[in-house]
Amino acid sequence: MDHFELRGGILHCEDVALPAIAAAVGTPVYVYSASTMKRHVRVFRDALGGLTDPLIAFAVKANPNPAVLATLATQGLGADVVSGGEYQIARAAGIAPDRIVFSGVGKTATEMEQALRGGLFQFNLESLDEAEMLSTVAVRTGIEAPIAFRINPDVLAGTHAKISTGSAHNKFGIAYSELAAAYKRARDLPGLKVQGVAVHIGSQLTSLDPLEAAFTRIGEAIFELRAGGHDIHVADLGGGLGIPYDPAEPEPPSPADYGRMVQRVTEKWDVRLVFEPGRLIVGNAGILLTQVIRVKPGPDHPFVIVDAAMNDLMRPSLYDAWHAFEPVRPDGEDMIADIVGPVCESGDTFAVDRRMGRVGAGDLAIFRTCGAYGATMSNTYNSRPLAPEVLVNGSQWAVVRPRIAVETMLAGMPIPDWVGN
Ligand code: LLP
């Protein structure tokens, strides 16, 4: 459920009419609903109701806008960060250090030091080399580093190959067969405090089966490691639960189904569970508001050319992702069209042969379910300024990232005076 609905024939975000935002800020623009995010936090928390004090660490990569993170911080969420930048933004947005986990295969010594000095709940390490590096940093700074290893359970996540992470062929985690040696080495390294295990097998998962298989493996690991004398009292189960995009597809499992499965599988673990949901919390809390520039005839059906492009929303061109497209003022008629942006690549296509509400030049429309991996993955390809972001809460709204003007981009790219010498 979300708060983007028709009222009086016009799409609103909560109590704000989308044309009002377009008039004030221009298009394309990302619009987020704070009430939708808060609702998803509540739904996820309720789904985990039977667990003792789970840590819900929002995957910052899904939407690192500080106003979004601050909204989630007020709901008690922590953060899963994967870079020094995400760590810094999460802290600036008010996320408590003892609710931050640091993931990723390529943490640098500088990033490790930043998080150690600033404080965090846990590093999720993905290799022994990383453990050695962290140990050096911990000894140098005199701050003990709480760690878990991310286990690669070698399961097929059944999602798009580019967002699957739990197979042995992916770069993530350490193999089950290497666990005992890794934990033993980590225990012997100075400055590290071994406290847990972690797993994350991929994103937009539409079945619980691979998750259950992975968690079962993690359960086995916990008991084996304890038998080896390790004090394992944290299990980070990652994120990845899918959300509905295309109403024609079967609905992914609900948070409640996920919660029941987790409680069943983890019942005897005696650990504090950590979760890293991203998409589930913010996915359908955001839309991309765009204007139709023109409708161009095509061989089979027209091209609807909108002012948003692949640089603003990369998901369709990167993963063939499906995003609903709807006119802001639907007139009850529909049409079949290809929806494309202005960028000079055929890959700049949002939808092919799409049956959708009729739009014409000058009309406003939205792409739905853009709150996760939307603005955060945008770029300035074709020298298109980054789209602004707006946060709505009831009848209040604010620009939480202004449009980056081309002048600002130019000012940041000096031309050396020796050019042409
Ligand atoms: N934890 C870790 C270690 C992750 O790598 C990710 C996502 C998450 C948690 C959050 O996963 P979620 O709950 O959001 O599925 N750009 C892609 C998605 C990439 C996901 C990367 N890792 C997309 O637009 O679909």
**Unreliable stretches covering 5 or more consecutive residues:** none
- Looking at CATH, which topology of the largest domain would you report? TIM Barrel
Question: Rg to the nearest angstrom?
Answer: 23 Å
Average pLDDT level? 96
SSE-based structural type: alpha/beta
Biggest sheet, open or closed, and with what strands and sense? 9 strands, mixed
Distance between the termini: 60 Å
Number of domains: 2
CATH level 4 superfamily of the largest domain: Alanine racemase
Shape: globular
Helix content: 25-40%
Bound ligands: ligand LLP
Q: Can you describe this structure?
A:
Keywords: Amino-acid biosynthesis, Decarboxylase, Lyase, Lysine biosynthesis, Pyridoxal phosphate. It catalyses: meso-2,6-diaminopimelate + H(+) = L-lysine + CO2. Pyridoxal 5'-phosphate binds at residues 240, 276-279, 373. Residues 36-282 form the Orn/DAP/Arg decarboxylase 2 N-terminal domain. By secondary structure, this protein is α/β, with parallel strands linked by helices. The protein folds into 2 domains: 4-31 and 283-411, Lyase, Ornithine Decarboxylase, Chain A, domain 1, CATH 2.40.37; 34-281, Alanine racemase (TIM Barrel, Alpha-Beta Barrel). Helices cover 29% and strands 25% of the residues. It is built from 12 helices and 21 strands. The chain has helices at 18-25, 34-47, 66-74, 84-92, 109-118, 128-141, 179-188, 209-227, 255-266, 279-282, 315-319, 406-411; strands at 4-7, 10-13, 16-17, 29-33, 55-59, 78-81, 100-102, 122-125, 145-152, 174-175, 192-198, 234-236, 272-275, 286-296, 303-306, 325-327, 334-340, 349-357, 364-367, 389-393, 396-401. Helix 2 (34-47) runs parallel beside helix 9 and helix 5 (109-118) crosses helix 6. The longest helix is centred in the middle third of the chain and has 19 residues, at 209-227. It starts with a strand and ends in a 10-residue tail after the last helix. The relative contact order is 0.16. The protein binds ligand LLP. Ligand LLP is lined by residues 59, 61-62, 80, 103, 163, 200, 203-204, 238-240, 276-280, 315, 319, 372-373. Residues 59, 61-62, 80, 103, 163, 200, 203-204, 238-240, 276-280, 315, 319, 372-373 line the site of ligand LLP.
